[in-house]
Amino acid sequence: MRIRRAHGLKRPKLRQSWNKFNLYNLSRVEPDNRRNRTFFQQKWTAKAVSRAYHGETVKEKHWQRMFRRRLRAVVPMDPEQLARSDGYEHAEGRGSGLEPHPNKKPKPFPKTPYMNMTYAPLERRLDTAIFRAMFASSTRQARQFVVHGDVKVNGKKMIYPGYQLNPGDMFQVEPERVLFATGAPKDARERRAGRKARQKKEAAATSTDEPSTPPSQNSPPEDPPPDDPKETLQSLLSQARTLLTSSSSSSLSGKRKQDLRSFQRLLKKTLSRTRLFPQQSTTLTDSLDAQLQELTQKLNLDHTPASSTTSSQAKVDSRDRSPESMTPENSSLLRKALAEARDNPIDVTKPYATPWRPRPYMSAFAFIPRYLEVHHKICSAVYLRHPVARPGLAEVPTPFGSDLNSLAFNWYLRRR
User: Fold this and answer.
1) What secondary structure letter does DSSP report for 299?
2) Would you state the pLDDT for residue 50?
C-alpha cells in the first residue's frame, strides 16, 4: 500500500525512484495547463509538483532555510583565445564602424537554464548523493542505508541523511547493500531455495543445541555425519583436474587451459578460506559444487557430484564425450561460465538473485551527474564540487522544464 500511495497513477507525482510506476509517470508527464489560473495558483502548483520530486523526505521549513536565491553558474571561455589576445581587439575601431568578418564572428552561446538550479542545495545531502551515484534505487532507500549505519563519509560512519557534503568528501556504501539495491529480486524458485537453506541452517543450529541422548534399540538408524567441507573441496579440485587431464593437450586451446586452471586456483583459494572462516565453508562448498555441475553440463559431460562415500580421487564416467566433439560454441560457453563462476558466484543465501543481474527498468535511470566521481567496484564516490549551470545545461537532474522551476523559484523567493 505504501508503494501505491507514493506512486499513484490517477494523480501522478514524480519521485526520485527507479520504480516502474514512477517510470510510467515520467513517460506521460505533460506541461501544466495555465488557463484561467492566477499567478499565485501557478506558483503553488509548480511548488507542489517539483517538491514531490526534489526532497520529498525533507520538511518544508527545513527546505526554506536551505533555499538560496543566488544560483551558481559558469560561462566557458576559449583558453586559446585568452592566451592569444589580451582583449585589445574589442576596442579596435570603436566609433569608426569597424566590424569583424562574418566568418570570424563568435558563435552565440545557448541560453543558460538558471531556473533549473532552484533545488541545487538538496544535491549536497548525503541521501540524495547516494541515489545520484546509483548506490540505491530511491532516496528513501538511501536514507535507510544511512540510518542503519551502512554508509561512511571520509572513513567515518555517518548516520545522518541530511549531512551536507563539501567538495572533496568521499562517501562509500556497503557493497552488499548496493548489490541488494541495484540487483534483480529473486523469483519463486530462488526464494524457495533460500528458505530451504535457512531452514537447513536453523535445523543444524537446533540439533547442536539439543543435549545428546543415548540411542535406543528401537530407534531408526541415524543419518551418517555430513562430510567435511575441506574434503568436499578437495574432491571438487580433483574433479577439475580430471576435466583438464582427460582431454588431450593438442585439442585444448591455451585459453581454455587457463580458464580451467583459474577454476582450480579459485578452489585452492576457497580451501584456504575455510581455515579462516569455517562458518562459511558449507555455503562456499555448495556454491562451488553447483558451479562445477553447471560447467560440466554445458560441456556435455556426465558429472556425478561428490557424496559422502566418494574419495578425494574422483573418477570420470566412461560415457564422457571425447574432446573432438567439443564445438566452438561449447568452448565459449565454458569460458563465460568459468569467468562468471569466479566473479559472480551462485549463492542462494543472498537476499537478491544470484548470479547478480541488474534490476528491471534500471537503464532509464542509469546516469551519473558531472559533480560526482563514482567507482562502482568499491561502491564509493567523491563529491567533486557544487553543481552549476552552464550554457545549455544545468547539472541538477530534474524532469521539469525551466518554466515550472521558475515558478517554484518565485514562490520561495518571496518567502525569504
Assistant:
1) T
2) 93
How far does Cα 118 stand from its chain's mean position?
Answer: 28
Helix, strand, coil in percent for the chain, rounding step 5 = 50, 5, 45
CB count in 10 Å sphere of residue 349 = 14
Q: Are 84 and 78 in contact (CB under 8 A)?
A: no
CA 36, 41, 43: angle at the middle one, nearest 5? 125
| Segments of the chain scoring below 50 in pLDDT | 1-4, 215, 219, 223-226, 247-249, 276-277, 298, 300-324, 416
Residue 348 near residue 191, CB atoms below 8 Å: no
pLDDT, residue 306, reads 40
Q: Write down the pLDDT at residue 201.
A: 82
Three-state SS string over 56-102 comes to: CCCCHHHHHHHCCCCCCECCCCCHHHHHHCCCHHHHCCCCCCCCCCH
Instruction: Give the integer Cα–Cα distance in Å for 67 and 59.
Output: 12
Which secondary structure element, helix H or strand E, spans residue 119, and what is its range? none
Q: How far apart are CA 60 and CA 72, in angstroms?
A: 22
Q: Which residue has cell 534500471? A: 362
Cα–Cα distance, 180 to 359 (Å, whole number):
10
Q: Where are the beta strands (DSSP E) in 305-376?
A: 372-375
Q: List, for residues 243-301, the tens digit of each pLDDT value.
A: 666 544 455 566 666 666 776 677 666 655 555 445 555 555 666 666 666 555 545 44
pLDDT value of residue 289: 64
Exposure string over 315-344, b if 16+ CB within 10 A, otherwise e: eeeeebeebeebeeeebebbbebbebbeee
User: Distance between CA atoms of 52 and 6, rounded to whole angstroms?
Assistant: 10
C-alpha R_g of the chain? 31
User: 23: burial class by Cβ within 10 Å (0-12, 13-18, 19+)?
Assistant: middle
Q: Answer yes or no: are the C-beta atoms of 20 and 361 closer than 8 Å.
A: yes
**Going by C-beta distance under 8 Å and a sequence separation of 6 or more, which residues neighbour residue 153?**
126, 163, 165, 169, 170, 171
